[in-house]
């Protein structure tokens, strides 16, 4: 049963961190925004099952700061002061610290659940009309400067007419498929197990990335004494590790990671599991439709870059929309795509190189790390990569943020128009 037509300037499909943040920015700048989310928003961080801690770049933190959102995240954020990169079976370690880079931190780790909770509150404050439990179903062709989407919610099907539809519905995007945008996709034949541990020794802001024959293993500091573990391995190994009791899983982790943080102890909490894929959309836009975040590009988590890259999509698309009278005009979308191609291509290629190249038996890292510490200290390109990309220090082009003054200053606004 169709429940009539809703209208807005912009329809955002998907209330993950990317869609929700974009919707907040646009609504604060006075655009009418509808947000359709297949599931429910997650205002309660403690009830959120997402176990990930996101390593945010300086640029991403700057975006949250400029929007006035950082004070709410800061109490839960852990600065990364040092990064240690090593490979199982070799002695070398690549080491970076914030002091030698002349900065306060190499990044900040914030629990995904805290970002979800922040944005759930900000969506309401910004006046975004959110349709929860409402999944995108289909699209019609653009007509007279608008495009219609059909969404299915608790009251049946609903048509929404918008000048721009933004697909932010994640890697398996139905909106991208309905627009006929093709993707290049590759499974990594690996999943990530993500959970917290409590090391006996204080982490002191240290982050560890260890390359093992099965896949990378990262330990990221948290704002308390815990560390967030991202442990990548083939699916059958993840199956077995998931079935282990906490203590047996920890013993195996300890064997892989070593003793530099003393005994690793359980921190309670669930073990999350994430299948890993690489995806790149062949185009970032179609008629009156734009792709952002995981819909446009999904990356291996080895370098902690996916959300950082996606937030740069958000800043670029928001800047273009806020400069234009018509948010879905072809020039706006083409300029957005042109502005994003190089960054996406560079980060996707570097991440894939790390994920695959470092694993291969004859891979670069083996020779590099095997050669010993003296050589690593001189290996500036690798050091720079980890300092600028691996933990997401790639600076947010400040000019993108300057395009958002309306979003920064606008008072909370009324609900989106019907
Ligand atoms: C293990 C792991 C660790 C990571 N660590 C980092 C890190 O440290 N730093 C970093 O920068 N990045 C990291 N990432 C990447 C980061 O998770 C992604 O970049 C980010 O989740 C992308 O957000 P998104 O909003 O685009 O997509 P998603 O988070 O997938 O959100 C999509 C939303 O769309 C909704 N949806 C789906 N289908 C529909 C539909 N048909 N209709 C309506 N709504 C729909 C979903 O319910 C969901 O809410 C990591 C990823 C993994 C897997």
From TrEMBL:
Record keywords: FAD, Flavoprotein, Monooxygenase, Oxidoreductase, Ubiquinone
Recorded superkingdom: Bacteria
Region (Disordered): 398-418
Location of the FAD-binding domain: 8-343
GO biological process, one term: ubiquinone biosynthetic process
Record field: compositional bias (Basic and acidic residues): 400-418
The keyword Oxidoreductase is assigned to this record: yes
Cofactors required: FAD
Recorded metabolic or biological pathway in which this protein acts: Cofactor biosynthesis; ubiquinone biosynthesis
Pfam families: FAD_binding_3
Molecular function GO labels: 2-octaprenyl-6-methoxyphenol hydroxylase activity; FAD binding
Family: Belongs to the UbiH/COQ6 family.
Name under which the protein is recorded: Ubiquinone biosynthesis protein UbiH
Record lineage: Bacteria, Pseudomonadati, Pseudomonadota, Gammaproteobacteria, Chromatiales
């Amino acid at each position: 049963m169709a429940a009539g037509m809703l209208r807005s300037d912009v329809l955002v499909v998907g209330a993950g961190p990317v869609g929700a943040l974009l919707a907040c920015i646009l609504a604060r700048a006075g655009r009418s925004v509808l947000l359709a989310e297949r599931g429910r928003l997650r205002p309660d961080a403690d009830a959120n099952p997402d176990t990930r801690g996101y390593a945010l770049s300086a640029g991403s933190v700057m975006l949250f700061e400029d929007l006035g959102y950082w004070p709410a995240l800061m109490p839960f954020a852990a600065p990364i002061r040092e990064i240690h990169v090593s490979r199982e079976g070799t002695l070398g370690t690549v080491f970076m610290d914030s002091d030698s880079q002349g900065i306060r931190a190499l990044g900040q780790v914030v629990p995904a659940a805290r970002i979800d909770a922040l944005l759930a509150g900000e969506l309401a404050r910004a006046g975004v009309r959110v349709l929860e439990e409402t999944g995108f179903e289909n699209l019609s062709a653009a007509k007279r400067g608008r495009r219609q989407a059909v969404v299915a919610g608790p009251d049946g099907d609903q048509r929404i007419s918008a000048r721009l539809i933004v697909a932010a519905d994640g890697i398996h995007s139905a909106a991208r498929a309905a627009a006929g945008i093709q993707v290049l996709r590759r499974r990594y034949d690996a999943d990530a197990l993500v959970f917290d541990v409590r090391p006996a020794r204080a982490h002191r802001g240290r982050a560890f990335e260890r390359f093992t024959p099965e896949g990378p293993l990262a330990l990221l500091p948290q704002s308390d004494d815990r560390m967030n573990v991202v442990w990548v391995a083939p699916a059958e190994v993840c199956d077995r590790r998931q079935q282990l009791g906490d203590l047996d899983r920890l013993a195996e982790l300890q064997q892989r990671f070593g003793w530099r943080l003393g005994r690793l102890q359980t921190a309670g909490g669930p073990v999350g599991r994430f299948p890993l894929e690489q995806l790149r959309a062949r185009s970032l836009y179609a008629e009156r439709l734009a792709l952002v975040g995981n819909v446009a590009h999904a990356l291996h988590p080895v370098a902690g870059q996916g959300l950082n890259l996606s937030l740069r999509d958000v800043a670029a698309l928001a800047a273009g929309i806020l400069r234009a009278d018509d948010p879905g005009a072809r020039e706006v979308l083409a300029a957005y795509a042109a502005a994003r191609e190089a960054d996406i291509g560079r980060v996707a290629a570097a991440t894939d190189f790390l994920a695959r190249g470092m694993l291969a038996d004859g891979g670069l890292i083996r020779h590099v790390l095997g050669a010993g510490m003296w050589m690593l200290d001189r290996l500036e390109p690798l050091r720079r990569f980890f300092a600028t990309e691996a933990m997401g220090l790639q600076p947010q082009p400040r000019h993108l943020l300057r395009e958002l003054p309306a979003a920064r200053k606008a008072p909370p606004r009324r609900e989106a128009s019907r």
